[in-house]
Amino acid sequence: MNTTDFIQIIGTAAFAISGYLVGYNKRLDVLGVVITALLTAVGGGMIRDGLVGRIPQVFLQTDALIVVFATLAIAWLVRVQRYRSTYLAAAFIIADAVGLAAFSITGAQIGMALQLNLFGVISLAFVTAVGGGIARDILVNDVPMILRTDLYGSVAILIGGLIYLFGRLGWINIFTLNLLFAGGLLFRLTAYRFHWQLPGFQRRRK
Known about the structure:
It is built from seven helices and no strands. It is globular, with a radius of gyration of 17 Å. The longest helix is centred in the middle third of the chain and has 29 residues, at 85-113. The protein is mainly α. The chain has helices at residues 3-25, 30-51, 63-77, 85-113, 118-139, 152-169, 174-194. Helix 2 runs antiparallel to helix 5, helix 5 (118-139) runs antiparallel to helix 6 (152-169) and helix 6 (152-169) runs antiparallel to helix 7 (174-194).
């Protein structure tokens, strides 16, 4: 197993957990929880593959599905939902941050493999990382996290840009990939902790 495969597995499991927690928080039934977990874990990759004109990998390989269902089985066996809401909220943020960083890297690497330009690499990193979360949030009638929280999509854009730069310089290796993963994760969690935000717009009061 190479570094990219490992990062892909970590990201899939992390997003499956975040989808599970969203489904539990919304009091969905078993099928609903499975759907939110699957959407979060594989939705971004399916959208990405559609953009580049190939059959979604989840339709050809079962690795992601095995990871998702194994993660859900473990979450159910340890009864994650029995823990306090504050712990569950923290678990969601951490799991979502892990998935965000991991899928940003895998999406960007696919863009590099297809020899896309900077915009293309960043776009695939962005869509892979946030597409599943957007689909999940729309399904449960929430405003997508990317539109309302601390520098969420910016992490994917930054990682995608750095992957492109490192690729052009010949710096893509185990060390730099792990460094990007750790850096993206730390950046997302720090932004959440200190409420770093992009400039917003507010309506003036009449």
